[in-house]
Give the backbone structure.
Amino acid sequence: MTTAVRAQSPGALHLAIDLGAGSGRAILGGAGPDGLALEEVHRFHYEPETSTGHLRWPFARILEGIKDGLGRAHVVAAGTPISTVGVDSWGVDYGLLDAGGSLLEDPVCYRGGRTEGEMERVLRKVPREEIFHRTGIQFLHLNTLYQLHVHVREGLPAGVRRLLMIPDLCHHALCGSTTGEYTDASTTQLLDVRTRTWADDLFSRLGLPRELMPELVVPGTELGELKPALQKELGLGPVRVLAPASHDTASAVAGTPLEPGWAYVSSGTWSLVGIERESPLVNDAVARANFTNEGGVFGTIRFLKNQMGLWILEQCRAEWAESGLPTDYEELLAAVASLDDVPGLLYPDHPRFFNPGSMISEVQGALVEGGLEAIEEPARLAKVILDSLAFRYASVVGTIEKLTGETVPGIHIVGGGCRNDYLNQATADASGRPVLAGPAEA
């Protein structure tokens, strides 16, 4: 594959750094007359850790993984120049810089519970309807709006001068850029959905520091060259740092070969279920359904619902592994597919599944409360989870048709979760629509 990457693009290669909620990977790519060749050159991990009272991302470890990815890409490229590098990540989380560009504290993780009750405090200042009609964004307690509101209330660190989202922080470390990229900024619930600029009046009415917010750029903007010190350390030349669609779902949708009118599911820890539109859809019905209008590439809007994804199953697998039960993914899915009955369904978006002490206990509790048995066998419990996700996908797609008045003829599943053949087929069965799967690296 290394030879293929170099052969496809003899003039230059490009490096994509994709950060997920706990692990990242560096993928080297090249395009040529025979298509696109990709190779994963590095994978790294950075689980959030509790520090100074909050669950935080170990940002130094994230940067170390990015640097290692650059170094390994240089080795794989074997003399072929690496032309560009760009970073995408999950949304909503941010870090704070001082006047000298130093990170003042590790970014707080959205799963840490800091924003409990904060949405209610915000809505006492600005009504829900006004926030939605201004931003077009789904109400989730983890949104940057509520994170920043509680941060201000608890006290921002002394000397703070700039707020940057996670991928923007990475670009700052690579080239010194202090700008923000539009698609990730659109997840904050602080952006005007129509003007695509910061909603200044929301900042003033909520007492939030507008002066900390960066100038915004669109995907494809060149941010600068890799810092000379990094060039020297890694043996690289003046690699250009580009802002991709830095919200991972925006990049995933851009990488999905969507048929006209089809819905997409970006399937991973979270499941993002939606369609691409040319303009935002903001009205009372959309607000009641709690859909969101996030920024996409080339001026598009990602009209979608942010759903719970394979997080529930992965947390159960981690618990099974701790108790000594086999957790091989392919074997588990084969066992699930062999089951004929439907052990039960649950509502995967319930807050109880967000970050419980024991996911297995939470799933069992939800089943018992619904009048079903507390399932112990891993395969049967996995079937409950996957069937529930499939039915939820189907429900959301049906709601999209009602809200837009347009038929959704099929569903295209991308991301790591598209490798789950059982879930793909269950989604087709539940929705009554054809389902296409892949690419996993959209």
Q: What stands out?
A: DSSP finds 16 helices and 18 strands in the chain. Residues 320 and 327 are 7 Å apart (CA to CA).
